[in-house]
């Protein structure tokens, strides 16, 4: 709607003849500043500070914690979803109105994103305004109060989020549930039966146990490192004792949810690589692009994808590669009309089981992976999250290791898939979708 409005309400600016040359613009906050490489400092309280100076006119700063949905206590799943929802509510230092007003007046944006192993509060603003909004970022990330009346008044946001979850996202959530059973099995979304059941005490207990100094990272893009270190030192974060849970294990099995849809959405996966195994992780990332990770050409047919070639246009298939600190999943996600779902899933599974690459395919996969990594870094939001994951989870910089992976390394991880135990999640009209023991 906004784009349509702008396209029909156009104002043209015309330049007349000036009596004299325009004055040279004065130096502003956007004047060039030296670029710097990634810098990292670990404070005495355990906070990791990582920054990169990009010489951009905008600055982005984030406060991240190594705590995601896998850390939610049993029976209290959905806390991470609540943290996302409450990130703009009142804190110990600011009312909701004050927080919103300061952010708006600065032309800034405050966001909260989360995963299964992290939660990230971030703010982006112009270089001139960033110092004025950093205190509000600290409020949102470290001074939560979770007032009961504000929680109840904003439950509609949770319900809207749940109503907007697409089937392709639902099937990925189901895949995690059956593959991991606990921990990583916890969804990024609050279970519908627990909406409105999380009390202030439950949320405060989770924050106190998981959002700690020794579990935190302060990351920045387009901001001097010394300023970011000083900011991190000012944060009121308490230390705690880290408690590592049992390592995650990928289980085989399946879950099927029948709906009235005319389509079937199916995710099939085998054990993949964890973040701790960098070479295997990069090898799986290359194999993912060799099999086909979406369609790189708009309105294209995906003719270069092994998966799309196998299904012959009967459905849409994309490879899946998920990496966590102690486990991973590798497989594919397919969507097809109910009548074609069986042959699409069977054909894609056959490709998965017999996966391999040659030199030409590996060369193309490396070019695609490098381009994907570099284009992702053009987005400061993605770059901040990547810096946070590297600081919190010891995630390696994949770009520097791509060229070191050989064809033997990729085919070695591909060979694991031939006999791996599969995990299957399916949602939609499943009348023709094969069961896991038929794949």
Radius of gyration of CA atoms, rounded to a whole number: 24 Å
Total helices: the number is 15
Structural class: alpha+beta
Helix share of residues? Answer: 25-40%
Shape: globular
Unreliable residue stretches: 1-32
N/C terminus separation: 45 Å
Strand order of the largest sheet: 1-2-6-3-5-4
Task: Describe the largest sheet.
Answer: 6 strands, mixed
Please, what is the average pLDDT? Answer: 87
What proportion of the residues form beta strands (DSSP E)? 15-25%
* SSE pattern: HEEEHHEEHHHHHEHEEHHEEHHHHE
Q: Total strand count, please?
A: 11
If you had to describe this structure to a student in words, what would you say it looks like?
The protein is of the alpha+beta class and 439 residues long. Helix content is 37%, strand content 17%. The longest helix is centred in the last third of the chain and has 19 residues, at 359-377. The chain has a six-stranded mixed beta sheet with strand order 1-2-6-3-5-4, with helices on both faces. The protein is globular and about 60 Å long.
What's a concise summary of this model?
This protein has 439 residues and is of the alpha+beta class.
Task: Note the topology.
Blueprint: H1 2-8, E1 39-42, E2 48-52, E3 58-65, H2 79-85, H3 96-105, E4 109-114, E5 119-126, H4 130-142, H5 148-153, H6 155-164, H7 167-180, H8 200-210, E6 216-221, H9 225-233, E7 253-258, E8 263-271, H10 278-291, H11 306-311, E9 316-323, E10 328-337, H12 341-353, H13 359-377, H14 380-393, H15 407-416, E11 423-428
């Amino acid at each position: 709607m906004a784009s349509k409005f702008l396209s029909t309400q156009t104002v043209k600016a015309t330049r007349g003849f000036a009596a004299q040359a325009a004055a040279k613009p004065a130096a502003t906050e956007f004047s060039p500043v030296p670029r710097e490489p990634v810098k990292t400092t670990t404070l005495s309280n355990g906070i990791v500070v990582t920054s990169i100076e990009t010489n951009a006119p905008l600055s982005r700063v984030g406060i991240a914690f190594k705590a995601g949905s896998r850390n939610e206590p049993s029976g209290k799943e959905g806390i991470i979803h609540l943290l996302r929802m409450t990130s703009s509510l009142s804190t110990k230092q600011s009312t909701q109105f004050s927080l919103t007003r300061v952010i708006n007046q600065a032309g800034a944006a405050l966001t909260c994103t989360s995963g299964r192993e992290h939660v990230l509060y971030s703010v982006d603003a112009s270089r001139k305004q960033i110092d004025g909004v950093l205190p509000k970022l600290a409020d949102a990330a470290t001074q939560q109060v979770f007032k009961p009346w504000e929680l109840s008044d904003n439950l509609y946001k949770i319900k809207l989020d749940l109503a907007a979850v697409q089937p392709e996202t639902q099937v990925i959530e189901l895949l995690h549930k059956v593959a991991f059973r606990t921990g990583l099995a916890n969804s990024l979304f609050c279970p519908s039966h627990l909406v409105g059941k999380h009390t202030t005490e439950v949320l405060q207990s989770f924050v106190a146990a998981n959002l700690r100094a020794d579990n935190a990272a302060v990351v920045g893009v387009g901001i001097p490192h010394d300023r970011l270190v000083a900011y991190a030192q000012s944060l009121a974060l308490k230390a705690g004792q880290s408690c590592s849970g049992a390592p995650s294990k990928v289980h085989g099995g399946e879950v099927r949810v029948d709906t009235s849809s005319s389509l079937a959405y199916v995710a099939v996966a085998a054990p993949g690589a964890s973040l701790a195994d960098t070479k295997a992780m990069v090898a799986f990332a290359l194999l993912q692009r060799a099999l086909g990770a979406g369609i790189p050409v708009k309105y294209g047919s995906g003719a270069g994808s092994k998966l799309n070639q196998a299904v012959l246009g009967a459905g849409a298939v994309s490879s899946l590669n998920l990496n966590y600190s102690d486990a991973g999943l590798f497989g594919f996600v397919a969507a097809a009309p109910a009548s074609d779902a069986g042959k699409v899933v069977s054909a894609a599974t056959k490709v998965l089981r017999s996966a391999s690459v040659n030199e030409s395919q590996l060369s193309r996969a490396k070019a695609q992976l490098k381009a994907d990594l570099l284009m992702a870094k053009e987005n400061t939001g993605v770059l901040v999250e990547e810096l946070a994951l590297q600081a919190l989870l010891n995630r390696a910089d994949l770009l520097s290791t791509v060229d070191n992976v050989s064809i033997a390394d990729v085919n070695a991880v591909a060979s694991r898939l031939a006999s791996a135990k599969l995990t299957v999640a399916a949602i939609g009209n499943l009348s023709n979708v094969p069961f896991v023991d038929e794949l």
